[in-house]
Inverse folding.
């Protein structure tokens, strides 16, 4: 059993509460103002019977509250009541200066109703509403008690203008809403594409690291029978199987890399950088005029740094220093690498990568780049997640920026 969706009130999607309540407030004010006014005018000025005038007033004013939720249903009631009121006025003798077939109160209520219609209904419905209004207006004009005049078409003119303006306003709002939705979707797609591109780039870089280890395994397995004397036949066969499996794995990795690499991306022949190359990054940044203080890892008591961790540390420092040059030129920067073990004895050794910069000496009047690549923080987070570490980035109170990554050095923690 399907549930019927309840119609929403006009402006129900507005972010501010007072805007959502505005249609109800306007409808209530019009209803309270027009109801007694219509009764008084129809009885005092037009000479209509009090009971008939009261019934017409209720039928013409009360549906304005319904128009907030269902303007088309309210229009059916109001149009029928307005036509009935015009026919009822033909039974009394009123002065020629008074408006007919629709007195001023009915014009005000109908214009408000047309505004609600224009903000809710489609263009085709608005055209049909106006044609029905014009037809009723022209048809009643043939029975005009004092002769037809231009002012007898006021309802058609005012209603048409209101429908046109409110319909255009609604279509403009819908276009802006769809544009905002499309921009949101496009931004999400750009973020997703950036993430996928960065993951593919990381995979391409790690290919060299893994391929090196697999190649070592292959060479060791192939040369075991020559390096180790008197190997039993079954052991020699085992080494041969290990070498074959390693070569097959290398082939599968190359095919996988071919999928990850785009047509525009060429193969990288240079070995992937690691911790020893971070000093070169610092020197290159210092040559741009930014003072950089570099504290490398100590040599005593440090755990061995895996190549994947070293590569991640290098890329994190590279992106952090590039951001300093782009967004805080000339700012004092500190780069520190350290290996530590938790004081509680739980967990293995960790490599801490810290890049902290202060505020630029001369803040630029605008951004130095019109737009970034979008790979900075995304790449940092992906690399840290890859090795099972943690990343802490954010601005400092003095206007600087801090990047702190903690990368585990034991295989049990990041596999």
């Amino acid at each position: 059993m399907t549930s019927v969706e309840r119609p929403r009130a006009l402006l129900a999607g507005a972010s501010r509460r007072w805007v959502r309540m505005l249609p109800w407030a306007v409808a209530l004010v019009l209803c309270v103002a027009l109801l007694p006014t219509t009764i008084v005018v129809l009885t005092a000025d037009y000479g209509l019977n009090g009971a008939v005038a009261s019934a017409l007033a209720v039928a013409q004013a009360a549906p304005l509250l319904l128009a907030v939720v269902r303007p088309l249903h309210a229009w059916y009631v109001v149009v029928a009541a307005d036509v009935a009121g015009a026919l009822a006025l033909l039974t009394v003798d009123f002065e020629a200066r008074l408006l007919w077939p629709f007195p001023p109160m009915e014009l005000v209520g109908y214009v408000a109703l047309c505004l609600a219609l224009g903000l809710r209904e489609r263009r085709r419905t608005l055209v049909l509403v106006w044609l029905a209004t014009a037809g009723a207006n022209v048809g009643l004009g043939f029975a005009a008690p004092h002769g037809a005049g231009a002012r007898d078409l006021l309802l058609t003119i005012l209603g048409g203008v209101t429908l046109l303006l409110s319909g255009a306003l609604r279509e403009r709002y819908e276009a802006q809403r769809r544009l905002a939705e499309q921009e949101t979707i496009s931004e999400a797609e750009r973020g997703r594409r950036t993430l996928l591109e960065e993951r593919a780039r990381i995979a391409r870089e790690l290919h060299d690291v893994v391929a090196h280890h697999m190649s070592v395994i292959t060479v060791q397995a192939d040369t075991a029978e020559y390096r180790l004397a008197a190997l039993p036949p079954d052991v020699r066969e085992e080494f041969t199987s290990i070498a074959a499996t390693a070569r097959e794995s290398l082939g599968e990795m190359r095919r996988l890399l071919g999928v990850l690499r785009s047509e525009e991306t060429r193969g990288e022949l240079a070995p992937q950088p690691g911790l020893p190359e971070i000093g070169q990054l610092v020197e290159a940044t210092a040559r741009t005029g930014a003072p950089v203080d570099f504290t490398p890892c100590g040599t005593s008591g440090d755990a061995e740094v895996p190549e994947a961790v070293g590569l991640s540390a290098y890329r994190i420092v590279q992106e952090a220093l590039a951001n300093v040059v782009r967004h805080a030129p000339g700012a004092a920067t500190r780069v520190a690498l350290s290996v530590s073990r938790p004081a509680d004895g739980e967990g293995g050794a960790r490599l801490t990568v810290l890049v902290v910069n202060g505020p630029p000496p001369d803040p630029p009047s605008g951004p130095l780049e019109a737009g970034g690549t979008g790979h900075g923080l995304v790449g940092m987070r992906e690399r840290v997640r890859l090795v099972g570490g943690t990343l802490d980035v954010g601005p400092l109170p003095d206007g600087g920026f801090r990047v702190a990554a903690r990368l585990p050095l034991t295989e049990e923690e990041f596999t």
Summary: Residues 367-374 have pLDDT under 50 and may be disordered. Strands lie at 292-295, 333-340, 350-357, 390-395, 401-408. The radius of gyration is 39 Å. The chain has three domains: 17-184, 192-260, 275-362+375-414.
